[in-house]
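Q: Protein A?
A:
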Amino acid sequence: MCVKVACVGGGPAGLYLSILLKRQDPSHDITVYERDPEGSTYGWGVTYWRGLLDKLHEHDPESAAALDEHSVRWNEGVARVGDVETRHGGDEGFGIGRHRLLEILAGRARSLGVRLEFEHEITDRNLPEADLVVAGDGVHSTLRTRHADHFGTEVRAGRNQYIWLGTSKVFDSFTFAFVETDHGWIWCYGYGFSAERSTCVVECAPETWTGLGLDVANEADGLALLEKLFTDVLDGHPLIGRSSGDGSAQWLNFRTLTNRTWHRGNLVLMGDAAHTTHYSIGAGTTLALEDAVALAGALSRPVELSQALTAYEQERRSALLSIQSAARYSAQWYESLPRYIHLPPEQMFALLGQRHSPLLPHVPPRLYYRIDRAAGQLEVLRRFKRWLGPRVARTVHARALASRK
């Protein structure tokens, strides 16, 4: 359908879309434009789950096999609250370095005849002539921002502060660690992505961040403090920052981005340019690749471009509803950590696993734990819990909106 395609942004979404379109029709003229030099990607590891890997094997077995080969695996979750550790089995998870992931996808795209243009920034002033322009250039997308009114872009900043770090400590499980300080709780999420490195995301409430002096500390001093706080979980290994030019630490508030529509003429949004979900559910890369699968599928049908883009948007919006809800409640769980942190370890870990529930914020934690335990044994109670949660959440949301009027 599309003869000439320009993918703006050399992340997972743009690269994988180019692979799928070339597999559909080798005659497609496809170029991926990336503003940064090749191999200069920031970030540590990304996570994904078995369901994504199975889907990738269906659509491009070669890149899926390389991804599988270079990923590390875990099937346990570990939660440490102070000196107490709880370990539970779970679904099979995978971690891979972001640099390695992009290397695999770029190599596969090149082998199929895709042109990759690095150090080539695209704006409205040098927009390439193409039948389709795909904006896969991230949360700060230049092309989306230029037409923000049309897309109806909305951004909501979360309350907590977080920083994305690496470490030479190789976690063998997906690990949560919570440490109490004189200024409140601080915690980290750790997972391996290679035989030598792990990702370690540190998060805390703003009053803890300022109380510990992390708001004014440079990167070196901040890392030293975090290494001291998490020395037990890190086994003495160092934390590794991003080495910004001015030595500042890269603390952020997570920004949840949504758009009213995802396409304008022959321009379409994909990945973080279209939507973001809180990092605590580990779905960002998965959703970007699934966007690429859906867009390639829509473009393969014998319909007009506008119809294909509408179908893609409708399919992905529907698929994202439950995931965006889970991400929203997961972020709220961490923002409400004092509500759960003093529960007995078994209960606290169970509710950590239930943090996506729309019912949990509205039920006393100990009562919710008992209900959840009972629901595990009674199908009728399980169905009632699934039915009740969204309704309670909608009622509370409607009351909150009415109170603002």
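Q: Protein B?
A:
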Amino acid sequence: MKKIAGIFLFVIFIVLASACSDDTSSSDKDSNKEWKPEKPIEIVAPAGAGGGWDTTARMAAKVFNEAGLIEEDIGVVNKAGGGGAVGWAYIAGQKESAYNLFVSSPPIILVPLNGQSEYGHEDFTPLANMIADYGAFAVREDAKWDNLNDLFEDMKKDPESITVVGTSSPGSMDHIQFVKIAKAAGVDVKKIKYVTDPDGVGLTQLLNGSVEVFSTGVSETVEQVKAGKIKVLGITAEERLEGETLSDFPTAKEQGIDTTFVNWRGFFGPAEMDSAAVKYYEEKFKELSDSKEFADVRKKYGWNEMYMNSSDYKQFLDEQKEDIKSLLDELGLGK
């Protein structure tokens, strides 16, 4: 009987060991599994057509498909509202999906910090950052200022006598990029008169004299500069950009104002995206970043290459949040 019992226990041990081995193999297999899309992919631009988010999403989708980097169709959908909040809320409802992506930039940090969205970058899965864009500060061609120092000297004397317009809300990107440069130049940033133009007619307001300064993206100024209607007093890049007209725009730094503002722009997925899908996308975005086709896109729009993979992007975003929070708190705009 003892011998039979011993054999029975030995058999049970072998079965259990085999089961554990199978579980381990299955786990190893899952951790190393590969993923690729099997149906169309949606990229959300959380704003209207024609802006930076929309252009970045559409150019990425175009090159992905035309260069054969991703075979499945990629559609771009605009979900405007709330400075990005409407689009973010939509993606938050697509939890775990590997087929719903969105493009974003500093507003995904700025807007939640000033209390206008319940969702921030921590509520999504960073996939890859792609580009660095920059701010530009424009005035009418016949304005009395020819450089940023001339403008800021007048703003130091009477900040409220000069109105700055931007598309984004107070505490968001167009506002903060101007405030950061003005602060470094010695302007009392709490007294800056900033107005919002969510309907995209800030340029019209500048041209008709309703405002004195237009804070916007570099690429949004090029055609009007060529037409002789406006002049760019300075941009927020580290050094001058390459390209026709763009190379004529002086940086704030070369005017002795020792700071910059980078409008980084990258892609995210919903929360809890499968790690295999994250790996797939960060590799595909790296291929996109390295492609000649996307290099041509960057050159056309005055963007610089700024690729970061998922983990580096998350660390960068966390650091950006700390820097921006201190500036918003100084302005009294933090929630």
